[in-house]
Structure formats: structure tokens, C-alpha cells
Design brief:
The complex is a heterodimer.
Chain A: H1 4-10, H2 19-25, H3 27-39, E1 46-52, E2 62-64, H4 68-73, E3 85-88, E4 91-93, H5 98-105, E5 109-116, H6 124-133, H7 145-151, H8 155-159, E6 163-165, H9 187-195, H10 199-208, H11 217-235, H12 238-241, H13 252-265, E7 272-277, H14 286-310, E8 317-322, E9 343-348, E10 355-357, E11 375-376, H15 377-389, H16 393-397
Helix pairs in contact in A: 5-14, 9-11, 13-14
Chain B: H1 30-39, H2 46-55, H3 57-64, H4 69-82, H5 92-105, H6 109-121, H7 126-129, H8 132-145, H9 150-157, H10 161-166, H11 180-189, H12 198-208, E1 211-214, E2 217-220, E3 230-232, E4 235-237, H13 241-250, H14 252-266, H15 273-285, H16 290-298, H17 316-326, H18 333-342, H19 365-379, H20 404-415, H21 422-433, E5 434-435, E6 438-439, H22 441-446, H23 448-463, H24 466-469
Antiparallel strand pairs in B: 1-2, 3-4, 5-6
Classes of the chains: A alpha/beta, B mainly alpha.
């Protein structure tokens, strides 16, 4: 196998190539980025979205441990009361979500219960599309809910780097009409690829950033190429500036959140970050896998909040974790759970009013065997848009959704 | 099982799509031949493109479906010789490398291309299946099925052990139906969303009960099968797996869904409704023997129209394998796996059951950076590298060709026949003689090693052009 180091070296033929060299050759772009970053006011608020992909079992995340119906529905998967982290009368967090319980105890975590939407769709793709676009219309809008928020930002903020996906691909939620949001799972690849400034690299740059056609694949690629050079310039300092004593766990989700912290420390003017954690589609032998996922998420989130605090950004960052649906109330015969409907959603940060919101859905009154929602997910979106990002939600979501008492006022 | 018993006889077959006749004065020229070879495989090298033009459209298209009897034996020998030493099929990387090696070297690229299509269609992942033998078996099923009967393939996939694990078929029992496979069978594999109800999902799950795994094979366990009456798609009966599949294949929505999906993969991202309708008709009339639709398509006016030419975006596999095949260059397949992953395509580990979204979703800042890095890596494979792959510029450009303009023309013929943008031609012509100390045309003409290195670098510039990735 190629190691990362070999991979990086394979792509570099010119010695001593660096971002600095790149910046020297394109002062115009750099100045523009710096100005834009300055223009993004110090007090601008930042939203970090974590996608729990696959459908998180809300029932085993926040457990209604006094409810006999829970134990009836989950003969092998029910979590015993004495192992739970009780956070309210009758409700406890998963035994392996201790870090979440700590955040809750410190008033840094709000849990919204019974989140969903009318006529729930049990397909991953359709439900994910609904969450990503913030719309139940079919066909779904092309731009995502966060992308539309980017489109509504002032031009100078958009000209910098308004949003960033810590993934290999841009999620639908971040697709915008006005800009190409960069996806930068690998800072290093980007740096090596763009940081080289020999003759072939210069010729490639010259020939790839200006579209020769108005539309079509090549034009679209040229646009991404342009975004790539810009992102590389802006992320140049992100890793060198970052100083932290917070120890993140060695998990994928923690690594991604740490990259967010690094980008935050570089003060690039990014307002929205997007990361995801895969694996919640627990159709079979769910107990161990689901526990591991929740543990990874909880510990990563805790480390991230600590880090953000240390960076002096504690009051500027709010993190939301969602999943496309919950899971069937009754466990299946494979000691797993099938696709369900309503679930719980997490919002964390120092600016968040911690506590339980919404109502725990009834385990008796179900819709096709699934929990019924009582809080529309777009109420969460509307609250974060209006009260946190300062982006009017009604035109963006196409309707008015009631606010929740999570942030602002 | 009416659906897959009567393979169509060629003489009964009438093309639904208008054939390519070149009535607008177009010919099956190098540009169109290169298009055909890109879409039906991984692009042709200069010799293959020339040969296609010489043989003409029909003979070339029929040649695509011609299996090479010796090839399997050759691969068996090759893999037998290296098994357990250089590579192993018992790791994910090993199977990825095995498959990429086949794509790089096969004389029947259409078979691998279709296997890739089916892999994206019935997207299963080793990350959940966690059994390389089963995953390897599934890819072999796709390779065998290739342009054969879709009905037989669906029936086989319902019994495929990797699929039984991937979508929890093995835990779909009489007492406790598990809907996972039943739902995707309809939503993603046959008729598409909104052509069935939630009730149909549950009833199909019941009909599919009993199929489970014994060791590494899919088996039917009568005890776990729900033999009761089911209501499915408006019909009622004691349905089993094959009945459900038969009924699904009879849905007009299935023909349309599959026609659109095949057209999106082979022709263009957004095929017009009337073409989809004609293609769907062909699928129905050929009892879903995919070959007939493909043969029809590859010989159609539509396929060679500007709607289709360079209208797709190359997948990472198409780009990487394609570039190497066009450059007649070998690279250890296991080294390519890492590049593919950086570009967003991990073979046998697609992101989810929907497969890769493809097209615009392939390209963003990160994946584009990885594509550029691959291009640059090629230029660094010089003959001073004793163990590594060698990028020999003189395979592409005659060593006596010393005029920059002629060299650029030649590179265009190799990599983008008739399609290298004028701006790139101009840029490359000056690039070939450029040095850090300014232009040196004499050096280019006289110094063979300088010229060779410049040609390597120019190639990387061409394959890093956005237009090259428009496939």
C-alpha cells in the first residue's frame, strides 16, 4: 500500500514548494481573503452541524426508563435503568454516553425530543434529502438549507469561506447557488496539490480555473478548481496557528471535529461547518455498535467544546447533531431495529440553554409502529437561522416555524 | 418465471433508437470512436481508436461484446502465481487491486464496465458484509451477468450471500420480517420510489423470508419462509422471492427506471423522456437482456450527438484506469487504490446502498485536488525509477518528432482526439519549450531527455484539464 507520505511525495516534483510561495504569486486573492476575514465581524456566530448518518435510535439514546412499554418493545436491546445516566425524572442517557451526560449537567447541552416531520419517509435517501434541503417538497430544491443560508450572507462573507465541509464530498445541505462550498477532509492533499508552483503546476492552474464553456461538465469542474485554489490559500495557516492542549479521542469523528477547531483557530470567517459520523443504520446486533457510536460522538463532542473554549470561542460556536430518522420502537429478530420516524436531536455549546425540550413521544400511540413527532425539525432550523445565524428563516424554509427556546431570545 | 426464459433472437430484433447514419455529414471518426471506447470501457489508446475507425461502427460495437476465451485462463495463471505473495483476495485492498488490475489489462473492457455499473446499482459494502470471499463472489456475479439478463441478475442477487448480509436478508424470517432488502429491491434496484406502498414493502419482505446464509452460500430455509398469502402490487398469491421479482419486472416503472439508469451511466446524465421511453421499450421487448439496449444505444444517432459527447463526468475509476490505458502505462494496481479513495471512490465500499451519486458530486475541492495529484504523480514516473512504473513518452510521441506544435497535436490525438481546446493547445505549445530561464526551443529540439520530460509534464497538464474529465 501507498502510505500517505509516499502519496504526498509522489505528487511533488519541485522541492521546497509551499503555500507561502503560492501566496506570493497571487497577492490579489490573498488580500481579498484577508479583507473578507476581517469583514466577518469578530462576533459572528458559528454553527457546526454533525450528521449521524443511518438513522439514530433515539429510544436508546435518551431512554424512558420508567416506561414499561420500552422494556416490552426491546426485550434484548432495552438498557437497564441502573446503567443509564439519568438526566431527568424517568429519562437517562445511554450508558456509554457519559460525556453527553456531563455536558448536560454543565448546562451545555439541549436535547430536543420527538423531532421529525409529517408523513415520515423511511428511506434513508429521501429522509436525508428532506433534512438536507429543509423541505418535504418533491422534487426537492437543489440547494440545501445551509447552502441557502450561505446564499443569503453578505457578499463579502461569501467571498471568503462562508462554509466548510470536513468530508471528502460536499453534503447536499451545503449546496449553494452562489458559491461552491469546499470539502476538505484532507488538508494535506489540498496543500500539496495547490502548493506546488513549478511550471506544470502553473500551466495547470492557468488552464483549469477559467471555464472555456458557459455550462456543462468542464465549466462545473473549472468552478471547483477555482474554489480549490481559494480554499487552499485560506486554509494555509489553519494547522500552523492551531495550539491546543485538549486531547481528542482517536476516532474518526473526533478527528473531524478537531479539524473544525483548527479551521476555527485560523479565523477564516467560516460560519458553517459540516461533519458526519457514519454507521447508525443498526438493523442487526445493534447493542455494541450503537453504544460505540454514541460513545465516540459524546467524547468527541466534549473534547471539541473544551477545545473551542480554550480557543476563546466558547460563546461563538453552537453545535447541532441530527439523524435522518429514528428507529422502529419494536426491536427486530436480529437484535437490531428497522427504519423509524421521530428521534431526538442534540444542540450543544456555551450559548445554548441546556435542558430537555419538546415532549418525549408516546410509546403506546404510534404511527405504523414508529414514534410520532411533536417538534418539526424545521423549528430547530428556524431557531438556529433566526436566533443564532441571524438569517431570516421564513423565506429560506418557505414557511414560518415556531422557535424553540435553545438559543437567543 | 416467464420473465427470463426466452432470450431474444437477433433476427427478431428491430432497433428502437434511430441508428447512427451520419446524415448531418458526421462520420464515425476518431473523436466518436474515442467516445465509444470511453463509455464502453476505459478509453482507447491510439492504436485502438485507429482500429475502431478502420473497422467501422457496427463491427466495433459487436467486438465490444466478444469475449476472449483465453483471457480467463491468463488471469487465473497470473493470480495463481501471485496469490498470497504480492496480493491476496482476503483483504479489501486485495480485491480492489484484483479488480482494478483486470480493468487495466482486460481485452473485454465492456464486461468490467458493466460489472462496475451493477456494483453501483446493487451497491454493497465490505464495511458491513465483512467477508471478502462474499464480496469477491458478488463482483464475479456482476462480471458474469454483465450484459445478460437483468431478471436473472435480480433473482441471483436476492440469493447472493453478500447481499443477504448487506441488507439483512438473513434475518428476514417468517416470525420477524426484516424489510431492508425488500424496500431497496423496489426503491433502488427495480421500479424506483413512489411505485409501491409501505404495505407492498412488508408483503415483499414476507415473500422473501427464508433466504439465508449457510456458510458462504445463500440457501432457502423452508422453515423460515412465510408461505401464507400476500397482497403485492395489486396481486394476491402465495408469493415467494421469484414471484415478487417477476411482478416487479412486469411493472412499466421498472423498465423505465432501468432504462434511465443505464442511459445515465452510458449516455448522458439527463436523458430526454422520449429516449428513456424508447430504451424502456427495448428492455421490455428483449425481456431485460441488457445487451440489446446497449447495442442499440452504441449504434444510435443519439449516442453520438452533442447531447452525449463529453457530457458525463469521469468517475475516479474511469479517470485513473482510463488515463493509464490511453497512455499505455502500467502501474501496480494496489497503488492506485489509494488515489481512488482520495478521489471519493472506494471500490467494494460505496458510501451507501444508493451507490455513488456520480457526476457533479464527484468533483469538489478535495477530490479535484486528488485528481490533480494523480496527474502530477504520473509525470514523476521516469526511467530513473528502477522498480516503479515507467512513463515512456516515446510510446506516445515518435522520438523524431521535435516540433512543439506537432507534439501537441499528437498528444491531442492520444488523449483528446479533436477536442483539445485551442487555449490549451497554445498554452502547451509554449509550455513545451519553457524553462525557468525562459523559452528554449533549441533545447527541446536537440535534447532528447529534456524533450521526454517536457512531454511527460505536458501529458499531466492535459489530463488535469477540466475538459479531460468531461468523459
Amino acid at each position: 500500500m501507498f502510505t500517505r507520505r509516499q502519496f504526498l511525495h509522489a505528487g511533488t516534483t519541485a522541492a521546497g514548494a509551499s503555500f507561502l510561495a503560492l501566496a506570493d504569486r497571487s497577492p490579489g486573492l490573498l488580500i481579498r481573503a484577508a479583507e473578507a476575514a476581517r469583514a466577518a465581524d469578530r462576533n459572528d456566530r458559528i454553527l457546526v452541524v454533525i450528521e449521524m448518518s443511518g438513522g439514530n435510535d433515539g429510544l436508546n439514546t435518551l431512554v424512558p426508563y420508567e416506561n414499561p412499554a420500552y422494556y416490552r418493545a426491546r426485550p434484548t436491546l432495552a438498557l437497564p435503568k441502573n446503567e443509564l445516566h439519568s438526566i431527568a425524572d424517568g429519562y437517562g442517557l445511554h450508558p456509554r454516553a457519559g460525556a453527553l451526560a456531563e455536558l448536560f449537567g454543565d448546562g451545555l447541552l439541549a436535547i430536543v425530543q420527538g423531532v421529525g416531520y409529517p408523513e415520515p419517509d423511511r428511506s434513508h435517501f429521501r429522509s436525508m434529502e428532506i433534512w438536507h434541503t429543509g423541505s418535504t417538497k418533491s422534487p426537492a430544491p437543489l440547494a440545501g438549507w445551509l447552502g441557502r443560508c450561505v446564499d443569503a450572507m453578505p457578499a463579502d462573507v461569501r467571498a471568503a469561506m462562508p462554509a466548510l465541509a470536513m468530508s471528502n464530498m460536499v453534503p447536499q445541505a451545503l449546496r449553494a447557488a452562489s458559491v461552491s462550498v469546499p470539502a476538505v477532509e484532507q488538508f494535506e492533499t489540498l496543500r500539496e496539490s495547490v502548493g506546488t508552483t513549478d511550471l506544470p503546476a502553473e500551466m495547470t492552474r492557468k488552464l483549469s480555473v477559467k471555464p472555456r464553456a458557459k455550462a456543462g461538465p468542464a465549466a462545473l469542474i473549472a468552478q471547483q478548481a477555482q474554489a480549490m485554489y481559494r480554499a487552499a490559500e485560506q486554509l494555509r495557516g489553519a494547522e500552523t496557528k492551531y495550539r491546543s492542549t485538549v486531547a481528542y479521542p482517536e476516532t474518526e469523528i473526533a478527528g473531524r471535529l478537531q479539524k473544525v477547531a483548527k479551521a476555527l483557530s485560523a479565523d477564516l470567517g467560516v460560519r458553517i461547518f459540516y461533519v458526519s459520523q457514519d454507521g447508525y443504520d443498526t438493523h442487526a446486533t445493534q447493542a455494541d455498535g450503537h453504544g460505540q457510536l454514541l460513545q465516540d460522538l459524546s467524547e468527541a463532542l466534549k473534547a471539541f467544546l473544551d477545545d473551542v473554549e480554550q480557543l476563546g470561542l466558547g460563546d461563538r460556536v453552537v453545535t447541532m447533531a441530527f439523524s435522518e430518522f429514528g428507529r422502529r420502537v419494536d426491536e427486530n429478530a436480529s437484535r437490531g431495529t428497522d427504519h423509524g420516524a421521530a428521534s431526538c436531536l442534540l444542540v450543544a455549546g456555551r450559548s445554548v440553554r441546556g435542558g430537555l425540550l419538546g415532549k418525549y413521544p408516546s410509546l403506546e400511540k404510534l404511527g405504523d409502529g414508529d414514534l410520532l413527532f411533536n417538534t418539526d425539525f424545521r423549528s430547530v432550523y428556524a431557531t438556529l437561522l433566526d436566533r443564532w445565524l441571524g438569517c431570516p428563516s421564513e423565506p429560506l424554509l418557505g414557511a414560518k416555524f415556531a422557535h424553540l427556546d435553545i438559543v437567543g431570545g | 418465471m416467464a420473465i427470463y426464459q426466452h432470450p431474444l433472437i437477433a433476427s427478431e430484433y428491430v432497433a428502437a433508437l434511430s441508428p447512427f447514419v451520419g446524415d448531418g455529414g458526421e462520420r464515425f471518426d476518431r473523436r466518436r470512436a474515442a467516445h465509444l471506447l470511453r463509455r464502453t470501457g476505459f478509453g482507447g489508446n491510439v492504436g485502438e481508436i485507429d482500429q475502431a475507425v478502420r473497422r467501422g461502427l457496427e463491427a466495433t460495437v459487436d467486438g465490444l461484446f466478444a469475449d476472449d476465451a483465453d483471457e480467463e485462463a491468463e488471469y487465473a495463471r497470473t493470480f495463481g502465481a501471485v496469490a498470497g505473495k504480492l496480493t491476496s483476495l482476503s483483504s479489501l485492498e486485495g480485491i480492489q487491486a484484483w479488480w482494478v488490475y483486470r480493468m487495466l489489462t482486460t481485452r473485454v473492457p465492456l464486461r468490467e464496465k458493466l460489472a462496475l455499473f451493477w456494483h453501483g446499482h446493487f451497491a454493497s459494502s465490505q464495511l458491513k458484509v465483512e467477508n471478502t470471499e462474499l464480496m469477491h463472489g458478488q463482483i464475479e456475479l456482476f462480471r458474469r451477468s454483465a450484459w445478460g439478463s437483468f431478471g436473472q441478475l435480480v433473482a441471483a442477487i436476492a440469493r447472493d450471500p453478500a447481499m443477504l448480509v448487506w441488507l439483512d436478508g438473513q434475518s428476514n424470517t417468517r416470525e420477524h420480517p426484516n424489510e431492508n432488502f425488500a424496500r431497496e429491491l423496489m426503491e433502488l434496484f427495480t421500479c424506483g420510489i413512489s411505485h409501491y406502498t409501505e404495505r407492498d414493502v412488508l408483503e415483499a419482505a414476507r415473500a422473501l423470508t427464508g433466504w439465508t446464509i449457510d456458510g458462504t452460500t445463500g440457501v432457502f430455509n423452508t422453515d423460515e419462509h412465510d408461505a401464507g398469502r400476500k397482497q403485492f402490487l395489486g396481486r394476491s398469491g402465495r408469493f415467494g422471492a421469484d414471484d415478487v421479482i417477476d411482478l416487479l419486472l412486469q411493472q412499466p416503472a421498472t423498465a423505465e427506471f432501468m432504462a434511465r439508469k443505464l442511459l445515465r451511466f452510458f449516455a448522458e446524465p439527463d436523458p430526454p423522456a422520449e429516449i428513456v421511453a424508447e430504451a424502456a421499450q427495448t428492455l421490455v421487448r428483449s425481456q431485460f437482456h441488457v445487451k440489446w439496449l446497449l447495442r442499440d444505444l452504441f449504434m444510435s444517432q443519439y449516442f453520438y450527438s452533442e447531447r452525449c459527447l463529453r457530457r458525463r463526468i469521469a468517475s475516479p475509476v474511469e479517470y485513473v484506469v482510463g488515463a493509464l490505458r490511453m497512455l499505455e502505462m502500467q502501474m501496480p494496481a494496489d497503488q492506485l487504490i489509494y488515489f481512488l479513495e482520495q478521489m471519493g471512490q472506494r471500490l467494494l465500499a460505496p458510501p451507501n446502498v444508493k451507490g455513488w451519486d456520480g457526476e457533479a458530486a464527484w468533483i469538489d475541492t478535495g477530490t479535484w485536488a486528488a485528481r490533480q495529484q494523480f496527474a502530477r504523480m504520473l509525470a514523476a514516473q521516469t526511467d530513473t525509477n528502477p522498480l516503479g512504473p515507467v512513463f515512456d513518452p516515446w510510446r506516445l510521441v515518435p522520438v523524431e518528432m521535435t516540433e512543439p506544435r506537432a507534439v501537441v497535436k499528437r498528444l491531442s490525438d492520444v488523449l483528446m482526439p479533436g477536442e483539445l481546446p485551442a487555449e490549451a493547445r497554445r498554452g502547451l505549445t509554449s509550455f513545451l519549450v519553457a524553462t525557468d530561464d525562459g523559452p528554449q526551443p533549441e533545447l527541446f529540439r536537440e535534447d532528447e531527455s529534456f524533450r521526454g520530460q517536457k512531454i511527460r509534464e505536458a501529458v499531466t497538464v492535459v489530463i488535469a484539464l477540466p475538459e479531460f474529465h468531461a468523459w
